[in-house]
Amino acid sequence: MRENAARRLIDHALSVDWSALPPESQSAAKTFLHDTLAVGVAGRSDRLADTVFAAAEGWAGQIGTSLVLGRPGARLTAPYAAFVNAYQIHCQEYDCVHEPAVAHPMATVGAALLGEAGRSGPYNGAEFLSALIAGVDIVASLGVAVKGPLKFFRPATAGIFGSVAAISRLRQLSPDIAQAAFGHALAFASGTMQAHVEGKPTLAIQVAAAARSAVEAIDLAVAGFPAPYESLDGPFGYFALFENDVELGPFLDQLGQRQRIQELSWKPFPTGRAAHGAIVALQTLMKQDGVSAANLASFVYRAPPLIARLVGRRPQPGMSVNYARLCFAWLGANVLKNGTVMLSDFTQTNLSEPELLGLAEKISVQADDNGDLAAFVPATGVATLVDGREIQIVVSRQFGSPEWPLSREEHLEKASACLAFGGCPDRAKALETLMSTFETVEDASGALCRVFESEP
């Protein structure tokens, strides 16, 4: 009888034990939870966040017990708190990413755990963090096992399974119940790349739906509702429907030997991750070689095909905020004008500003012949100046990646800026203090509520 992939992943998730984890994984879990919470608070100020929250309130139909980030006093039932928090975490393209998996594990897994902890807890900090690590392991494993091109929006399609695994670990459910929840997750799984192509905010809604549906999948399984057994590797399972060219076996063998939480990358800029190498390349040329808006004739970023596919689109007047976050030409224009890209740059005025659109016409992305369909690097930036000189820069690593991580100061600066953007500037120190010893708290959800809702 062949091995059931879902059961193998579930058995691993349920076995994650905080005390047995290496210090590097423990530290990464606290660091990226900190980043995720801060980004989720910033998402409260997204232009559509109130619309999403109002819809979730209507769907919930009752006052819940789960925290909603950036909304003091607001409580929703677990599925809908997960929905709103996941939307807010991902909506500004500022949440951390697992590059090899082409996925954003913390948006779904973190949001689902926040929802669950608020209703079925209390759970101590070590249990919450263990569940977080387990969920990231599953999302990343489902992503790195794929050799074919991205077909569906993996942060949502893989995210629901990681979220189910994380909740199963948090509640210490039986393997049979967790496997049934995986079966229900297959029924709920969705996430189209069409929203990415069109630059629509539906991308973050798909992440939100995955987090919500994970909670619902757990509830159905706990209630004893039957579900498919071969949810991942059945003839109409996850891999057959959502991915091409999958080789999961080697990555199943790595479970427990490495924690994927250590492989996450920060996002230093609120844009599609695929634009970050090009942003840093342009910043470097400006600083080291004097490249400027005035003397630049053109800038071409030659990168792996994934980069061109994700952020190579052309700018257009009146484009949406979501489109602009995935358009390096427009993002590069902001770098030329302002030196960087910030949350405050994404206004309707800026999106149609003639100066930025004019600069954007000088900037393009070209696909190279890299055969790795999930690669972000290596890449080359080529600046041609108005005097005919050509300057090249090679990008071999991504800022914010494990190979080039944010410093502690840069991490805290990002968190503080996010909290300020979300209307909670006075919570930065309290959140930093809590995260430093989060594994020791007796009630993870309660501790977070006190940070965001008590008097500073």
Task: Describe the protein's topology.
Blueprint: H1 5-15, H2 23-42, H3 49-60, E1 66-67, E2 75-76, H4 78-90, H5 105-120, H6 125-144, H7 154-157, H8 159-171, H9 175-188, H10 194-198, H11 202-222, H12 238-242, H13 249-253, H14 276-289, E3 296-303, H15 305-311, H16 321-325, H17 328-338, H18 348-351, H19 354-360, E4 363-367, E5 379-385, E6 390-395, H20 408-421, H21 428-436, H22 444-453
Parallel strand pairs: 3-4
Antiparallel strand pairs: 1-2, 3-5, 5-6
Helix pairs in contact: 1-6, 1-8, 1-9, 2-4, 2-6, 2-20, 2-21, 3-4, 4-5, 4-11, 5-6, 5-8, 5-11, 6-8, 8-9, 8-11, 9-11, 14-17, 17-19
Question: What does this entry look like structurally?
Answer:
The chain has helices at residues 5-15, 23-42, 49-60, 78-90, 105-120, 125-144, 154-157, 159-171, 175-188, 194-198, 202-222, 238-242, 249-253, 276-289, 305-311, 321-325, 328-338, 348-351, 354-360, 408-421, 428-436, 444-453; strands at 66-67, 75-76, 296-303, 363-367, 379-385, 390-395. By secondary structure, the protein is of the alpha+beta class. The strands form two sheets. The chain has a four-stranded mixed β-sheet. Helix 1 (5-15) runs antiparallel to helix 6 (125-144), helix 1 (5-15) packs across helix 9 and helix 14 (276-289) runs parallel beside helix 17 (328-338). The longest helix is centred in the middle third of the chain and has 21 residues, at 202-222. The radius of gyration is 21 Å and the shape is globular. The relative contact order is 0.14. The mean pLDDT is 96.
